[in-house]
Amino acid sequence: xxxxxxxxxxxxxxxxxxxxGVNFALFSAHATRVELCLFDPDGTETARITLPEYSDEVWxxxxxxxxxxxxxxxxxxxxxxxxxGHRFNPYKLLLDPYARRYAGQLVxxxxxxxxxxxxxxxxxxxxxxxxxxxxxxxxxxxxxxPPRSPRPNRPWHxxxxxxxxxxGMTARHPDVPEPLRGTFAGIADPAVIDHLVKLGxxxxxxxxxxxxxxxxxxxxxxxxxxxxxNSIGFFAPAERYVSPGAGLEQFRAMVDRLHEAGIEVLxxxxxxxxxxxxxxxxxxSFRGIDNAAYYKLAEDKRHYYDTTGCGNTLNIGQxxxxxxxxxxxxxxxxxxxxxxxxxxxxxxxARDDKDFNPSASFLDAVGQDPVLSRVKLIAEPWDLxxxxxxxxxxxxxxxxxxxxxxxxxxxxxxxxxxMLPALGSRISGSAEIYDRRGRKPWASVNxxxxxxxxxxxxxxSYNKKHNAANKEDNKDGHDDNRxxxxxxxxxxxxxxxxxxxxxxRRSLMASLLFSHGTPMLNMGDELGRTQGGNNNAFCQDxxxxxxxxxxxxERDRAFLDFVRGLASLRxxxxxxxxxxxxxxxxxxxxxxxxxxxxxxGEEKQSEHWTDPVAKCIGASFAGDGQILLMLFNxxxxxxxxxxxxxxxxxxxxxxxxxxxxxxxxxxPVVIATGKTTIEGRGLLLFERTD
Length: 690
Prior knowledge:
Layout: E1 14-17, E2 21-27, E3 33-39, E4 45-50, E5 53-55, E6 58-64, E7 71-77, E8 80-81, E9 86-87, E10 102-103, E11 137-139, E12 161-164, H1 166-170, H2 184-187, H3 190-198, E13 203-206, H4 216-220, H5 248-260, E14 264-269, H6 286-294, H7 319-334, E15 340-343, H8 346-349, H9 361-368, E16 376-379, E17 398-401, H10 403-414, H11 420-427, H12 431-434, E18 444-447, H13 456-459, H14 495-514, E19 518-522, H15 554-572, E20 586-588, E21 591-592, E22 594-597, E23 616-623, E24 626-633, E25 639-642, E26 653-658, E27 663-664, E28 671-672, E29 675-678, E30 682-688
Parallel strand pairs: 12-13, 12-19, 13-14, 14-15, 15-16, 16-17, 17-18, 18-19
Antiparallel strand pairs: 1-2, 2-6, 3-4, 3-7, 5-6, 7-11, 8-9, 10-11, 20-21, 22-23, 23-24, 24-30, 25-29, 26-27, 26-28, 26-30
């Protein structure tokens, strides 16, 4: 094929169709030559063109008359010198980091590796086998319209997040048409959206939807990378979630439908590492384009500085790599309608060099960006590097996953001793962590369970993990689960044990939705989803991970109704979602905005918090003429609680929630005075009536 080639421009990066042809631009600081390879729909290479210009470390060229839909890839020339950090290999076809779409599937073969597999010198000997037959191809994409529905723009303090997986949420849903199950269109189905709306969800947080790779070792074991934390492209949606021929429009249509229902769309994004792994991983894109620029290298440049546990760390401190990430984020916001992001292993992104820095180039760039600084930003505030645990250290404007909430509340309701201080802090927004630099309680994203770990049902059904299906001899996954089976491991028909498990999961869920901060629900927990004790189901693309919508027993249906009631109470009671931290400031004579009480009705003093055996406590929240009273009892036995004085008198209290009995706004109305009894493992919520 003979094609005319013009110099083109070094911007924008990627393949840009302007209606007359396509401009190709690729950053590589250390390459000596870049070849653009074009392919026909069958994957046959039809042209190989050297990009004619090199400007500001960007290789570029313009091909007139090239239409959208054209398949392409790159071959990049330069030194193959792993000891110097360079791994150029023109025998390997490479994916464009800016590609908006990929066609075809990756097929694992030794040809995908830049070195000779099996050679005694390992990665020091370059492979000369063509990888093109085994690699997906990039697709030139034309312009299209962004989503049209107005954004919900939900205030942070009114936000309830639902973490979900595109396939896991829809694969077994009987009301979603079978061809749409496992796709973005499945998430947009009215039955799924109706469930979220009735649950009180205001934002859905989708596990990674960027193009990602199934790891070779998983494929060889008959498994797959189900979660998707193995990105290879930051602009293209994973084809497995798109119906054949639908393209990005299906994602945009999903965003429109969710926005129409008042639900924001958050994406879990993985910019900390890529699917190319360590020095012995495949050469698919970044490694072959410019290994020394895209990745953080160790002192021995043959190897990588890895803070992610995945073999490599993306070099966000490099200006062009930072630009890649920022361009990707803005693309998903401006062109796809996304409302925010949860950043996987975010501490890795805040290391310009080796140390965490709250003013790292990435955090500063996001903070000043007129687009990204206005969307919801959530950090997973840890990585696997030295001093990687940084809960509370991210700058203003960021929310953070607060695993201390998870651990503290699981331990408290399990009945562990000495947990009252943790309970008090977590219920009131974890102020000792987040109350600085003008941050608000919403900065604490509270959760009982998430994709990584036990489901809520498994928290009350297993003492230990059961990960045999992952084929790692049960060595993977966390060992510190703060869980308890209450008498029998796993499934049981014992009504006493089931009653106790139900009590505990109701109290955990009530604690979550009644806590200050941002609550996050784990997909299917409201339906009693179980993974059979597997607390690391990243490779289980099957019934272990998928939501079971149809086989709900009476207990799970009752629990679903209870969770809906909790969310409704949170939405109507402003004192449960304070936009600011409460530190006991007076709001009326002898009434403070938050107070803590012993079961005898006396206000708790500092020395009372250190009682290791105390498991019962009361908390009041007051403001705008209203008072709410929450009573907690993690003991096994009932406890009488004397209502405290407010002002100079006892008040009358209307019961709003009794987690032990599964009651929300009970009928007939329950009015209490003087004292009440809290069942074991129970939580009561009252509002004043006079």
